[in-house]
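Hey, I'm writing a tutorial for new members on how sequence and structure tokens pair up, and I'd like a real worked example in the thread rather than a made-up one. If someone can provide the structure for the chain below, I'll link this post from the tutorial.
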Amino acid sequence: MSNSNITKRALSQALKELMKTRPIEKISVGNICDACGLNRKSFYYHFQDKYELIYWIYCTEFLDAALSRHYDDSLELLDSVCCYFYNNREFYVNTFRMEGQNSFSDFFHSVVYAILKEQLSDVFSSEPSIDPYVEFYTDAIVQAIKKWLLRKDRMPPHEFASFIEKALLGVSRHMYARHADRPARQMTPDSSDE
């Protein structure tokens, strides 16, 4: 492992330890450096701020490995995401509580959005823009994961991933069976429910 990666890993471990006892807003770059015996110059050589360190942790510990692996379907990837968050819940409960600029929720939303946009491109290929559909599913999945992780009585990760699968596919199958023969409604700004 290169010296650069050793330094980054030391900083990430220090941040994870600090986040076990205090929220990210109460942790300074100086606290992180003190906890691992490095100076601020070393920190700023590798990261702009503590938020970039959090994103680096997620990318190196999970995202890079997950995206390089072959999944039979996107639900298998979802299961992998849930297991990772569950196994690292002390850290991610704290990161999901961050609000505003630099929030982990926004970063995670952008990651899920990019993955879903690729996954849904065939499904909504006849639409002028798939962005509203991707946004809808991204919001639903990110909020569901966030709420699940923040609950004290959270269900195990495989069970939760299965729940999301059933919620998405169950409704889709039901709606398809119920409306398969019906032509799609064209909604216009003037149309109203009758």
